[in-house]
Amino acid sequence: MNTLEELKKLIHQSFDIDPATLTPDGLLEDYGLDSLALGELLFSVEDHFDVTLPDSRTDIKSLEGLATLIDELVAKKTS
Amino acid sequence: MKRRVVITGLGLISPHGDKPDQVFDALMSGQSAVTRWDQGTAAQPALVAPARFEPSRFFTRLQLAGVDRFSQLAVAAAELATTDAGLESLCEGTGVYVGTGMGGASAIEKAFNSHQESGRVPPLTVPAFMPNAAAAHVAVRARIHGPVLTYSIACASSAVAISEAARAVARGDLECALAGGSEALLVPSVVRAWQALQTLAAANTGDPAQACQPFSAHRSGLVLGEGAAFLVLEPLEAALARGARIYAELAGSGISCDAMHLTKPDATGQIRALNAALRESGLVPSDIGYCNAHGTATIVGDVVESQALAAVWGDDLDQLAVSSTKSMHGHLLGAAGALEAVITTLALSQRKMPPNMHVSAQDPACAIRLITKPNTEAPELRAAISNSFAFGGTNAVLVFKQVD
């Protein structure tokens, strides 16, 4: 499964949001995730992918942005 | 000029369910909700009275992010009370007064466990466990912009919250108040802490449902309960003007502190609160037909409460019927005063008095007129009190009466 699909699954498991409604360029806040829920999601993401997200999170407003960032962090870890 | 304050809505998430009339019927018939704790990680077996609650009835999964169980119970009970009052929404100047002893126990335990295991702590731990989270969630959900306040005074938390709310309505500060409390601390570390304090009812012998025996010669301690309860308080005139159903009048309250000992109660302090409550209500002891006792079933506490009632009621003590409904729903700690305020309100409005169950032999040192049988009718019941006496020494007494 690619990172984007795994993310969709994680959001579904965490918040019961239908994965079919999640699009790559959709903003997470448009799916109802406020800053608190986003914080909880990012904590789960760190656990799930075993990465540490940087404090500046300007590129993780969308699913695609978050997936790209995760792939970069995973690649950096394994290289 | 002080305004008269009446109760127009009741909401519960309790060990006996969430419908006030059904909860009251269950209590009247003597049904206990005390059960063996099924999360067997406690050091010793424990007995509890868990709230019956299905979060999905009130929240989506997304809405539950960072919301501790004690806040969930509060939001649900507050919504049920608002609906029960026949109000589609509350005016934005409404006040929210919430009592809780501990706040978000689940969030604290989870944070501590993950800190030990991985060094990582969930990011929403702080807003989840802070004691005022429940009140804040109630305000956010109902869009209430008046005073949104939290009272943490151990077992008197929600009785004090109700007293403070009623006084604000009586003064004219508020046109409506949502007052109550919430407690949800049935997690392993907290249950163990209570076990360590040596105050819990014996869990090894007999039927768990009958383990809580307030005022009995055989009592062995309290049973931890869980839940939330809220009352809608309005000025009498406003309630009459909108044709609201009025359950009872909240006639007054009395608050004092023993200032003697952190955990050992003192009759002198309780007497002070009882007298203050009667004075504020303009009632005398012989006016009060029923007392919903604090009666936690601890060895020391029940005797002291009996002594305090005897001192204030004097020759009229025989006219005061007493029961501790904790025998059936356990001790809801910070939410106890609110649940028992709802029960006392229903006792008045239905003119029935719930029993003090599981007493095969009353302690002679607790020489009060105990209601030991289910289904006691009280056609003459005019006024009633509810006692809440806290660790820390704070005593709160609420007085309820029929609206003339």
Could you please describe the fold and organization of this structure?
The complex is a heterodimer of chains A (79) and B (404). Chain A starts with a helix and ends with a helix. Chain A has helices spanning 3-15, 35-49, 63-78. In chain A, 56% of the residues lie in helices and 0% in strands. Chain A has 79 residues and is mostly helical. Chain A has a single domain (3-21, 33-78), classed as Orthogonal Bundle (Non-ribosomal Peptide Synthetase Peptidyl Carrier Protein, Chain A), CATH 1.10.1200. Chain A has three helices and no strands. With 404 residues, chain B is α/β, with parallel strands linked by helices. Chain B has two domains: 5-241, Peroxisomal Thiolase, Chain A, domain 1; 252-392, 3-Layer(aba) Sandwich (Peroxisomal Thiolase, Chain A, domain 1). Helix content of chain B is 33%, strand content 19%. Chain B contains twelve helices and 16 strands. Chain B has helices at 20-28, 69-84, 105-117, 125-129, 133-142, 157-171, 188-196, 236-241, 267-281, 299-313, 326-329, 336-350; strands at residues 5-13, 35-36, 47-49, 95-99, 148-151, 177-183, 224-225, 227-235, 248-257, 290-292, 321-323, 352-353, 369-370, 376-377, 383-389, 394-401. Chain B has an eleven-stranded mixed beta sheet with strand order 5-4-6-8-1-9-16-15-10-11-13, sandwiched between helices. The longest helix of chain B has 16 residues, at 69-84. Chain B is globular, with a radius of gyration of 20 Å. The two termini of chain B are 19 Å apart. The mean pLDDT of chain B is 96. The interface between A and B is medium-sized, with 14 and 10 residues.
Range of helix content of chain A: 55-70%
Distance between the termini of chain B: 19 Å
Spatial sequence of strands, sheet with the most strands of chain B:
5-4-6-8-1-9-16-15-10-11-13
CATH class of the largest domain in chain B: Alpha Beta
Total separate domains of chain A? 1
